[in-house]
Design goal:
The chain is an alpha+beta fold and 146 residues long. It has one domain: Protein of unknown function DUF192 (Jelly Rolls, Sandwich), CATH 2.60.120. It contains 3 helices and 9 strands; from the N terminus they run H-E-E-H-E-E-E-E-E-E-H-E. The strands form 2 sheets. It has a 7-stranded mixed beta sheet. Strands 4-7 form a two-stranded antiparallel ribbon. The longest helix has 18 residues. The chain is globular, with a radius of gyration of 15 Å.
Length: 146
């Protein structure tokens, strides 16, 4: 009985990157200019639940864009996430409403959007500071109708 559960978990983990394989271009517009990222889309329950878990590397200029489909309070965590991340919370028009810098790997602490958002962009820790990202800056991507 337990062996089929272990097999199912192994299959899920091995196929996990395929769940979020679709990528697209995203621009972050700050006072310092436009910064381009190639992001994986997490726009289903499965891809949002998996996020960047179990990975030990995220390329520079890469990230994951979580689309929740509508504005609501969003709660994130770093369970099973090995990479320190910056989490950028954005409204339905792409405006950045809050930033959580340097989320601690493997932490079970809840990270909240602080107000309703439609999306969360996860990038390597330190990126938000490096590009001078601030509340009020904008994410440009087709999911925001741009």
């Amino acid at each position: 009985m337990a062996s089929w559960r272990v097999l199912a978990l192994a299959v899920a983990l091995l196929s996990a990157p395929a769940l979020s394989a679709e990528t697209s271009r995203l621009e972050v517009v700050t006072q310092s200019g436009e910064h381009v990222f190639e992001v994986e889309l997490a726009d289903t329950n499965e891809t949002r639940a998996l996020g960047l878990m179990y990975r030990d590397h995220l390329d520079p200029g890469a990230g994951m864009l979580f689309d929740f489909g509508r504005e609501d309070m969003v709660y994130m965590w770093m369970k099973n996430t090995h990479i320190p991340l910056d989490m950028i919370f954005a409204a339905k028009d792409g405006v950045v409403v809050s930033i959580h810098a340097n989320a601690k790997p493997m932490s079970l602490a809840t990270i909240t959007s602080k107000q309703p958002v439609q999306a969360v962009l996860e990038v390597n820790a330190g990126v938000a500071k490096d590009i001078g990202l601030a509340v009020g800056d904008r994410l440009k991507h087709p999911m925001f109708g741009q």
